[in-house]
Design goal:
single chain; 7-stranded antiparallel β-sheet; 4-stranded mixed β-sheet; 11 helices
C-alpha cells in the first residue's frame, strides 16, 4: 500500500492490493469485462487485475480515498449478491459473511495489530467486522494477508480504518510484493539452463527464465569475498529493487541439481544487530526463510563493537540473504556507523 499527498495536501492517493481466487475475479470482471468497467467508471478508481493462469490473482485499486472506498463498496456488494444467488440454489440457512483479503507489507502489520492487539481489537469493535492478520508472510514476499469479513457496510468501515493506520505508519525498508505463481509445473535449474518437468522428461525452458537464473547467480549486491563494501545506507544497490529481489528469490527457491554451497561472512556493528535479529528473532528467521540460506550470528565478544554473521548456501541464497540483511539495517546512522564489511 502506497500513499502520496497531491498538490494542496488535501487529496490522498492510495494503492490497495487485494488477493482473490479465480472465481471471485471472474465475478468482478463480469461478462466481456462489463462489471469491472462499470466499477471503474462509477468509482473513479483505477482497478487492475494481474495477468496469468494463476489460482490466485492480485486486484490493485488506486485512486483518491473517496474513489477507493466507492470501489470497495461495489466489490463488497457484488460479493454479497453472489452469496445471495448461491444460497438460492442450496439448502444452507445461515448466510456466510462477505470476505476480502488485503495484501499489506509485513512492516505495517505491527501498527495494524497495535500493542497487545489493542488496535485490531478497536477496529473489530467499532466496525463489527472480523479482522485477521496472517502470522506468516506470503510466499517469496515481505507481505502478509489481512482477511476482513462481515457485512458490506462493516467491511467498508473497516477498510477506512485500516487505510488510516497504513497512512500513519508507512512501510519500512524495501517491500518485496507478493506475486501469485501460475498453476504450472515447477522449474528446475541445472548447469545454467532452466527446465520444466513434463511427465518423466526435463524439457528446456524458454530463455526468459534462464536469463533470470543467470541474473540471480551473477548480480550480487556485494563485491567478492575479501573486499570491503559499505552498506550504502542512502544509495541504490544493484539489487535494491523489489523486482530484482523477486528474481533472485525465485531462483533461491528453485531446485538446483548441484547447488554449490559456500560460506560468506559479514561484520555488523552491535548497534545494528537488533534491527537484523528483530523482536524474539522474528526478523532473522524471516531472512533465513526467504533466502534459503543458513545464517549464524556470533555471540557478542567483550570489548568488541561488532558481531560476526556467517551465511552458508548457494551464491543466490547468500546474495539474497545479504540483500535482506542490508535492507533491515539500512536506516541512515547519524554517527556514520551504518556500514558493514563483507
Amino acid at each position: 500500500m502506497e500513499s502520496k499527498v497531491s498538490e494542496g495536501g488535501l487529496n490522498v492517493t492510495l494503492t490497495i492490493r487485494l488477493l482473490m481466487h479465480g472465481k471471485e475475479v471472474g465475478s468482478i470482471i463480469g461478462k466481456k469485462g462489463e462489471t469491472v468497467k462499470k466499477m471503474r467508471e462509477e468509482s473513479g478508481a483505477r482497478i487492475n487485475i494481474s495477468e496469468g493462469n494463476c489460482p490466485e490473482r492480485i486486484v490493485t485499486i488506486t485512486g483518491p480515498t473517496d474513489a477507493i472506498f466507492k470501489a470497495f463498496a461495489m466489490i463488497a456488494y457484488k460479493f454479497e449478491e453472489d452469496i445471495t444467488n448461491s444460497m438460492s440454489n442450496s439448502t444452507a440457512t445461515s448466510k456466510p459473511p462477505v470476505t476480502l483479503r488485503l495484501v499489506v507489507p509485513a512492516s505495517q502489520c505491527g501498527s495494524l495489530i497495535g500493542k497487545g492487539g489493542s488496535k485490531i481489537k478497536e477496529i473489530r469493535e467499532s466496525t463489527g467486522a472480523q479482522v485477521q492478520v496472517a502470522g506468516d508472510m506470503l510466499p517469496n514476499s515481505t507481505e502478509r494477508a489481512v482477511t476482513i469479513s462481515g457485512t458490506p457496510d462493516a467491511i467498508i468501515q473497516c477498510v477506512k480504518q485500516i487505510c488510516v493506520v497504513m497512512l500513519e505508519s508507512p512501510p519500512k525498508g524495501a517491500t518485496i510484493p507478493y506475486r501469485p505463481k501460475p498453476a504450472s509445473t515447477p522449474v528446475i535449474f541445472a548447469g545454467g539452463q532452466a527446465y520444466t518437468i513434463q511427465g518423466q522428461y526435463a524439457i528446456p525452458h524458454p530463455d526468459q527464465l534462464t536469463k533470470l537464473h543467470q541474473l540471480a547467480m551473477q548480480q550480487t549486491p556485494f563485491t567478492p569475498l575479501g573486499q570491503t563494501t559499505p552498506a550504502f545506507p542512502g544509495e541504490k544497490l544493484p539489487l535494491h529493487s523489489s523486482e530484482e529481489a523477486q528474481n533472485l528469490m525465485g531462483q533461491s527457491s528453485g531446485l538446483d541439481a548441484n547447488p554449490p554451497a559456500s560460506t560468506h561472512e559479514l561484520t555488523i556493528p552491535n548497534d545494528l544487530i537488533g534491527c537484523i535479529i528483530g523482536r524474539q528473532g522474528t526478523k532473522i528467521n524471516e531472512i533465513r526463510q526467504m533466502s534459503g540460506a543458513q545464517i549464524k550470528i556470533a555471540n557478542a565478544t567483550e570489548g568488541s563493537s561488532e558481531r560476526q554473521i556467517t551465511i552458508t548456501g548457494t551464491p543466490a541464497n547468500i546474495s539474497l540473504a545479504q540483500y535482506l540483511i542490508n535492507a533491515s539495517s539500512a536506516d541512515p546512522d547519524p554517527h556514520g556507523r551504518n556500514t558493514f564489511t563483507a
